[in-house]
Specification:
Layout lengths: L20 E4 L2 E6 L7 E5 L7 E4 L11 E6 L2 E7 L5 E6 L7 E4 L11 E6 L2 E8 L3 E7 L7 E4 L11 E6 L2 E7 L5 E6 L7 E4 L18 E4 L2 E8 L3 E7 L7 E2 L13 E6 L2 E7 L5 E6 L7 E4 L11 E6 L2 E7 L5 E6 L7 E4 L17 E3 L2 E7 L5 E6 L7 E4 L11 H4 L6 E3 L2 E8 L2 E7 L6 E6 L22 E3 L2 E6 L7 E5 L6 E5 L11 E6 L2 E7 L5 E6 L7 E2 L1
Antiparallel strand pairs: 1-2, 2-3, 3-4, 5-6, 6-7, 7-8, 9-10, 10-11, 11-12, 13-14, 14-15, 15-16, 17-18, 18-19, 19-20, 21-22, 22-23, 23-24, 25-26, 26-27, 27-28, 29-30, 30-31, 31-32, 33-34, 34-35, 35-36, 37-38, 38-39, 39-40, 41-42, 42-43, 43-44
Length: about 550
């Protein structure tokens, strides 16, 4: 692989918030940190000269951590924090001048934290939080005036925490908890009056719908939404709805009585939905449905008996469907199916014998023309980039990005939503190399797989996965000619530090931590010449603290 563009690297690389790629016109927008600007918007046209910082939304090293890229017309909507307004709704047209905040939903430095974006027509639906209503359902047309809360599904500050499923016709389906019915299926037409619960599958406060996670829990087929639902009589099974209570019905009782079939991984491919289910006879295996009870059948008992193959990650490439399954002999490997029992076959035993060639973690395959791109371990190279055309001969290692037995792909990558994108005949993705998480592009060949960028996330002193992280908006703030920031000074919790940019001028304000909360320095705000932040000293719980920037002067306010 050839060096493409070296943005920055760090010897003590840590994973940032999930980076994203999104195509906007002929460019690809993504997030990266060069060690100077923090995690910000970048753009590339696939060339070294065309890869550069797009906008420094949170000026300096703080980083705006953009995510949730969602196309709307000629723009991308996303969530970001500029250090002054908290995390809010932003947009870009691919230029620095055209990158702006759409609306400050929660005025001031607090976050409305817009998330779970879903585009339907010329509207993007999302959830956001306010102190009085909690997290509720919103919509935007990309203008400030057209960005409004649709409904307060759960009155009061707790919020209904909506998560969007899919748009079917003029209805948007989502799951929410109104505080009375538990987590159930809801729908909206974009108005408060047109927002209502579809059906209370589990009467009372029990949950009637499977919580949205990284494993697909819904699919659309024709004019119906298929989803994983639970009722007392059938347990967890697949249901379908046309948006009415009467039209919300059980697809088929696959599992025995109230035990349910624990379905997962619903993916609509052509005129059928493929999924995994356990009928208590064949174990967890691959099923398919045409939307009818009679047409809901087991595709193949890949691992005979009750153990099941655990088939998942169904991905269509041309006329073939790829999946991961374990037949009890070869371990978790790559399989292919045409939807029939006879046409369901092991593609290749990538890791010979019972070893796992593919990990038991939800892994996003990438359809690249008529080829599948994925990461696999052959026992010699670690988890590396592979390609397959559905045949054993056509399945091979593309590039050993981290030479030797070490892997360029890790479970931490799999734990995030897929951020890969195919644009302009190139696949943009993230992978590890020499211990660093970097950006890559590939045309599906070894020679055409190039390093795009190496991300710089700050040193291991900074808790990446916490409130107060340097990658979290507001985690680092200008203060007294320098910056205040969270770091672990040999402790297991983050405390307040101050720096003027020199080693001698970098010191811990005070150890306000020591309590049960391992990340104590949060929500820093500068007022006048004083720094205010929340911290837990192990005695008083999380309270407001104050410092005037002198060592040892931090005190509970």
């Amino acid at each position: 692989a050839d060096l493409f563009t070296q943005i920055s690297s760090s010897a003590q690389q840590q994973f940032p918030y999930p980076a994203e790629f999104a195509q906007l016109g002929s460019a690809v927008i993504f997030t990266a940190s060069d060690g100077i600007h923090g995690l910000e918007l970048w753009t590339t046209d696939g060339t070294a000269a065309g890869t550069h910082l797009l906008a420094d939304i949170c000026p300096g090293v703080c980083g705006s951590s953009p995510f949730e890229f969602t196309p709307l017309g000629s723009r991308l909507l996303f969530s970001a924090g500029d250090g002054a307004h908290g995390r809010e709704l932003w947009e870009t047209d691919g230029t620095a001048a055209g990158t702006r905040m759409v609306k400050d939903l929660l005025p001031g430095v607090e976050d409305s934290h817009p998330s779970r974006f879903l585009k339907s027509g010329d509207t993007v639906f999302f959830s956001a939080q306010e102190p009085d209503t909690g997290r509720e359902i919103w919509k935007t047309d990309g203008t400030a005036a057209g960005t409004v809360r649709i409904a307060d599904v759960r009155p009061g500050p707790e919020g209904s925490s909506p998560a969007f499923l899919a748009a079917v016709g003029s209805s948007l389906f989502f799951e929410a908890d109104d505080g009375v019915h538990g987590l159930e299926l809801w729908k909206t037409d974009g108005t408060g009056g047109g927002t209502a619960i579809v059906k209370d599958l589990a009467p009372g406060a029990d949950w009637g719908i499977h919580q949205v996670d990284f494993n697909p829990v819904f699919a659309v087929l024709g004019d119906r939404l298929f989803f994983i639902g639970t009722d007392p009589a059938h347990g967890e099974e697949i249901w379908s709805t046309d948006g009415t209570e009467a039209g919300t019905t059980l697809l088929k009782e696959i599992g025995p009585l109230s035990a349910g079939a624990s379905p997962a991984g619903l993916v609509a491919i052509g005129t059928q939905i493929f999924f995994r289910a356990d009928d208590a006879v064949h174990g967890s295996e691959m099923w398919k449905t045409d939307g009818t009870e009679a047409g809901t059948v087991l595709v193949k008992d890949i691992q005979p008996g009750a153990a099941g193959s655990g088939a998942f990650s169904f991905t269509a490439v041309g006329s073939q469907i790829f999946l991961i399954a374990d037949d009890g002999t070869h371990g978790a490997e790559l399989w292919v199916t045409d939807g029939s029992e006879a046409g369901t076959q092991l593609v290749a035993d990538i890791f010979p014998g019972p070893g796992r060639g593919l990990p038991w973690i939800l892994q996003a395959f990438t359809a690249f023309g008529n080829t599948l791109l994925f990461f696999a371990d052959d026992g010699a190279h670690g988890q590396e980039l592979w390609q397959s055309d559905g045949t054993a001969l056509g399945t091979s290692l593309v590039a050993d990005l981290t030479p030797g037995p070490e892997s360029s792909w890790s479970a931490l990558e799999a734990a995030t939503v897929d951020r890969r994108v195919v644009a302009g005949g190139l696949w943009y993705f993230r992978a590890l190399s020499a211990g660093d998480l970097k950006y890559w592009i590939s045309d599906g060949t070894g020679a055409g797989t190039h390093l795009l960028a190496a991300i710089n996330t700050q040193s291991s002193a900074f808790p990446i996965w916490s409130h107060g992280s340097l990658l979290e908006p507001g985690g680092i703030v200008p203060f007294r000619g320098g910056v205040a920031f969270p770091a672990e000074g040999g402790s297991n919790h983050a405390d307040a530090w101050l720096s003027d940019g020199t080693a001698a001028g970098t010191f811990q304000l005070d150890d306000a931590g020591g309590g049960a909360d391992p990340f104590t320095f949060r929500t820093p705000v500068v007022l006048g010449s004083s720094l205010f932040f929340t911290a837990d000293d192990g005695v008083h719980g999380s309270e407001i603290w104050k410092s005037d920037g002198q060592p040892g002067d931090a005190a509970m306010f």
